[in-house]
Amino acid sequence: MTWEFCTEPDFEEKLEWTRSFVRDEVMPLEVLDVDDARLRELIKPLQEEVRKQGLWAAFLPPHLGGSGWGQVKMALLSEILGEALWAPTVFGSRAPDSGNGELLAIGATPEQRDRYLRPLLDGEIRSCFAMTEPDAGSDPTRIRTTARADGGGWIINGHKWFASNACVAAFLLVMCVTDPDARPREGQSIFLVPRGTPGLTVVRNIPALDDHNPYFRAPQPDQHAEVLLEDVRVSQENLVGRLGQGWELAQARLGPGRIHHCMRWLGQANRAFRMLCGSRLADKQLIQHYIAQSAAQMQAARLMTLHAAWVIDTDGIEAARTDISMIKFFGSRVLHDVIDRALQVHGSLGYSADMPLEWMYRLARAARIYDGPDEIHEALVARRLLKQFTPVRVPSEHIPTRRLAAERRLGITTVMEPA
Ligand SMILES: Cc1cc2nc3c(=O)[nH]c(=O)nc-3n(C[C@H](O)[C@H](O)[C@H](O)COP(=O)(O)OP(=O)(O)OC[C@H]3O[C@@H](n4cnc5c(N)ncnc54)[C@H](O)[C@@H]3O)c2cc1C
To answer: Cα(219)–Cα(200) distance, rounded to whole angstroms?
Structure first.
């Protein structure tokens, strides 16, 4: 019987190195007013250091240069990386590239691996996952982008939006309907569409809450684009995985990705919590209520996330679906609440861009929407739990009914005295 809450000493050493490195080397990058090119120059030597430590793209299996640690360890690492805006880039595990790397690791052909996955993992190129459409977000069964077989290849038509990284990506992974008569789980497939393919237009980066910072010239890490696909011709070799495997691959990508997100959110929450506790008002009773509430919520979110990670490691992604959905909506709420309280106690200073709480708050708001809005995950959890119950006419805990049953079982009659 093991039921432990500790980290192996060898791994704790790696985490400790990561904590100091992120605090001393990565966090300072956030406050520099430099453009994207200069920022990349500053990040490069840090990425080299991470590689030397064997922590680069650690989420991947060992044969692709990753750690093969599994999700619990990845979750613990992600919590630290979540603290700093640029840490996921420095460690080669920034979404959506990390998730796209995971997807290609499962579904890519040997050629796709050499041509796209390797340079993606080496940090030489960036990538995009284009699934959401203006009329198909929460409900991917409504996806209308089609890929039609034509002369040994495929012709894609559709309209995607909120495709993060599309403007800078070397390739897009596009979710398409390949068999409109099949159930969506079997009728959708993913195609790799290289940048520059005729008919592919990245229309614009959609101005959004998370893409501007009054202080800095460097753009926020990811921007989200609108994409048009008009008679885009790709060959059979651009299919990722099997025909009809799109849904399955998307799930494989999103499951562990959500755990890493949740732990990164916790890193952000930890940071806000430190600001909350460091506030001049921390000795006031109401603020102590905020502190206690935040600490309890964060502890719950952390344990739920690590447990979900453990279920993936132990029994696989399908077994962890309910746990993953549960932490997705719970964790995003905790992130929001802790940052909100820290911002509140700092008053107008907290609201201003003189404190990082300003961008932390803006980024946190998106967590309740991306990777499936919270309501969808709540509904999924409820539906799964409800499978264990059957509605009954008489509630199972109805006391007079239970008393009758107990009396029959014991062969006695009891009389309730009037009050
Ligand atoms: C920052 C950010 C980055 C993103 N990056 C990507 C990306 O890289 N690639 C990509 O493909 N997509 C991306 N998305 C899109 C994201 O996955 C979708 O926004 C999400 O799936 C929700 O879809 P929607 O926006 O169309 O909302 P809708 O489906 O229009 O839903 C709107 C709201 O209605 C409510 N709602 C919807 N359905 C239900 C229901 N059944 N029950 C109760 N309430 C419901 C929810 O509150 C939801 O927020 C990103 C989104 C954001 C915000």
So the answer is: 24
pLDDT tens digits, 239-268: 999 999 999 999 888 877 888 899 999 999
Q: Is the CB of 70 under 6 A from ligand 1?
A: no
Q: How far is the CA of 283 from the centre of ligand 1 (A)?
A: 40
Q: How confident is the model at residue 419 (pLDDT cuts 50, 70, 90)?
A: low
Q: How many angstroms is it from 157 CA to the middle of ligand 1?
A: 21
Ligand 1 site-directed mutation target among 162, 164, 211, 377, most atoms within 8 Å of CB? 162
pLDDT tens profile 175-199? 999 999 998 889 999 999 999 999 9
Complete domains list, the chain, with CATH: 9-121 (1.10.540.10), 127-243 (2.40.110.10), 247-386 (1.20.140.10)
Q: Which atom of ligand 1 is nearest to the CA of 373?
A: 49
Residues 105-149 have pLDDT tens digits of: 999 999 999 999 999 988 899 999 999 999 999 999 999 999 999
Task: Establish whether residue 376 lines the binding site of ligand 1, counting it when its CB lies within 6 angstroms of any ligand atom.
Answer: yes
* Ligand 1: residue whose CA is nearest its atom 31: 138
**Is 0.90 surpassed by the pTM of this model?**
yes
pLDDT averaged over the chain? 92
Tell me how far the alpha carbon of residue 375 lies from the centroid of ligand 1, in angstroms: 10
Q: Which atom of ligand 1 is nearest to the CA of 208?
A: 1
Q: Is 101 in the pocket of ligand 1 (CB under 6 A)?
A: no
Minimum CA distance residue for ligand 1 atom 33: 373
Query: How many Å lie between the centroid of ligand 1 and the Cα of residue 98?
Result: 20
User: Which pLDDT tens digit goes with each residue over 4-60?
Assistant: 889 999 999 999 999 999 999 999 999 888 888 898 899 999 999 999 999 998 888
Residue 208 backbone class (left: φ over 0; alpha: ψ -120 to 50; beta: rest)? beta
